[in-house]
Amino acid sequence: MRLWIMRHGEAQAHAPSDALRPLSARGKAQALESAAQLRGVPLAGILASPYTRAQQTALLVQQALGGALPLHTVPWLTPDTDPGATLCGLEGQALGEWLLVSHQPLVGCLLGLLERGEPVALHPMNTASLAELDGEGALAGLMTLRNLFHPQQ
């Protein structure tokens, strides 16, 4: 199994609620820069947080990759989700390559859980950063970080 974990692009500072914060112009450019890293990757689909900025990031990636990838909104990718709950959510996904689009602190803690077995942020995950992990499955401590891309925008 290969997982690609992406933090949403930069969001605007103000909105009626955190969940409704849209991407800034810079955030859209960041998302597209990271999407370019996924060209040619045989993704099974995209799993995204329901928050506006993550949805917009996922849609930009989907469009940049030709628009045919399935995009699923899941409740277990919000900022404060327990990383263990995210692993439980991933149990229902078929093996293959998946892109997760989510937020801090979840993305950092999820990387730590998958790589080292502890939900501790080990790597910086700036806006639109993209991590590539592989392993036998999405299991705590059993995946290997292969690449970490940070957009230049």
From TrEMBL:
It comes from Pseudomonas typographi. This is Phosphohistidine phosphatase SixA. It holds the Pfam family His_Phos_1. Gene3D superfamilies: Phosphoglycerate mutase-like. SMART domains: PGAM (SM00855). CDD domains: HP_PGM_like. The gene is sixA. SUPFAM superfamilies: Phosphoglycerate mutase-like.
